[in-house]
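Posting for a labmate who doesn't have an account.
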Amino acid sequence: MLEGAVQPEDLAKACRAAGFPAAAMVDRGNMFAAMDYSAACKSEGVQPIMAALLPIERPAGEDGRRMVMGLPMVDWLPVLAQDMAGYANLVQLVSAAHLEAEASEGPLLPLSRLEGATGGLIALSGGAEGWLTRLAADGQPIEEAADRLQALFPERFYIEISRSGEEVEARAEPALLALAAARQLPLVATNPVRFLKADGHAAHDALLCIADSSYVDAQERRHSNPEHWLKPADAMRALFADIPEAIDNTVAVARRCAVMAPSRAPILPRLPGEGSEEERLAASATSGLQVRLDLLGMADRAAHQKQLDFELGVIGSMGFAGYFLIVAEFIGWAKAEGIPVGPGRGSGAGSVVAWALGITDLDPLAHGLLFERFLNPDRVSMPDFDIDFCETRRDEVIRHVQTVYGREQVAQIITFGKMKARAVLKDVGRVLQMPYGQTDRLAKLIPNHPTDPWTLSRALGLARDKKGDLLPGVPEVIAERKRDPKVARLIEIALQLEGLPRHASTHAAGVVIGDRPLAELVPMYRDPRSDIPVTQFEMKAVEKAGLVKFDFLGLKTLSVLARAAELLHDSGRQVDWIALPTDDVATYRLIAEGDTVGVFQFESEGMRRALSQVRPDCFADIIALGALYRPGPMSNIPSYALRKAGREAVELLHPMMEPILKETNGIIVYQEQVMQIARELAGYSLGEADLLRRAMGKKIQAEMVAQKARFVEGAGANSIDETTATAIFELVLAFANYGFNKSHAAAYALLSYQTAWAKTHHRAEFYAASMAFDIDSSERLAVFVEDGRRAGTSVLP
């Protein structure tokens, strides 16, 4: 990263445009983009060659380990995968370079580590950074090094010749050509590619300055080589006219390589235990449901049992029983260890099986939550439980999972920070030594809303909408570019660098668990800030490779509630957050008054105004406000409040909608309501209704026409005339984009209620617990102190 200015998708397109049938992406010590590159080449009709530069520690001479500036001397060895065995070895070696080296040394492989691990791999001697090239350039003998490499790659070793203007290449070439002739080793011509077009040199030079924290005008720094671009075939033929076989052999190498980064069906480990996974899940869920219903004192259990049986059938038929068992095991362990776990998150809260297993803590049937929103029997896709853990103890759960399945089979997921519009302007402005105030002002002109961040192209009026029409840009940015040549230069460079990865870090939540060591499936990486391995593939790529993601999220609110419970316990009072009844009048009075600083989800000034406006007096109101207080649906809050107060009439297009929309005062708030309307009024199954919901979100015209016809026909079977049915469909379509996942809203509403209850009844302990996990919140502290002053006593123990 910050060395190559080439995106995988752009490389594939450039190869197709240049008529290249194949291309090897050979990144330095990593395979971060292998999956993306494979997909991009496939779509462009170009053969991808899976490869990497391996960081090889130069063997020591008589003087012991060779060191340069306190670090091992590294030579870079290009290796290319011929087949699946070669790909597997490549993945293993790249992983070993990160996981087996000392953290302070960076990725590194002793040459001996390659022994027995090179099957299916082709090696090139390396260009200016290769072992043979460097030895030859220094006038040292290269026969012994060649012996080692030939032995490691028998009949699969090529002498690489580069002519990109590097001095070391020119000094080494005579000795390399002589070695190839003496040993009848094939030659292969290469040209390092750091940017795609010749005019990308200035931008790449700036990129190196960003990487090295230097300035473009500085002389004593690393400079970009203007020859390191994707040269056309005729230019390469001319460059190697004296050794045409070196060009011909590029085709020979490509013909030997026939493997892509593989996509796999989901792979899950088997949780130790007797019996089939389906039998174990059914037994655990059935007994768990009885415990849940016993605690609720519920006599009529038929509806819950029927739903449980239905869900177990769907889960079993999809092959996901093991997934539920895995999640239930580590959540059960966390709870047994006293680690706070959230009541649910996302659509998983709609599953009775999840509730019975203790994965979630909210009765789905009591709140009208739908299983099909989580797992659709008409659309096979992996379930995805997002789990909140106490922020301070989340890592304990990950380590437990490592203990159960093996350290090599559990990892976190990498994520890449990108050079986005505002950041790249500032980075480039710095290396060009432009005034900070100027670049900062320019950067702030770029709209950067979290849900719609603008690119530089869009800000400059160069982006197009789906119809192909130019989108309006930011007039100030366009004018500044025309007026000031320095700004024009800044923007020209920034446009070429925008979107490139800037750094790697660890995904905040994602964890993968495999049925074998993960390095057998994906390349691995080590984040220097953690001792838990990390995949080199980001989230989407890692799932394509067959690994199943589990989200282990850290939630501060759970830590606050746990700390408050400890403080209460110390004074002889006990509290069970999950068992709290959700009908406490005093708690709703506090919420309705907007006295909610410190209350989960309800702290912001805008939300406190909304609470005062709606004046919630039941749990359904809290769920609805959590779903409504977002851009778009927020405009419905006044109407919700007026209808709740009886000052605005609730008008429905058809009486059959009344039971579905009653709890939200006739307003479509939830995705689940969209599904219920389709089921009750138009005869959809819930699985079909979920597909309708998804289609409405995508707004694909042809699909909408078909769905509208299906909806109107189904409504007709319920004696709903075509005009009314069409109006209902259009209404649902308008709300589909705004509809929120009720399962998530309900689970998070429970956390809001719990924190509001704690503030209502145990304010001192709640404030003390809140400040223990938010010591930097001066605004919150000021509110807490003022609250205590008005109460005539300190509420901060």
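Reply:
Got it, the structure tokens are right above this. The chain has 33 helices and 17 strands.
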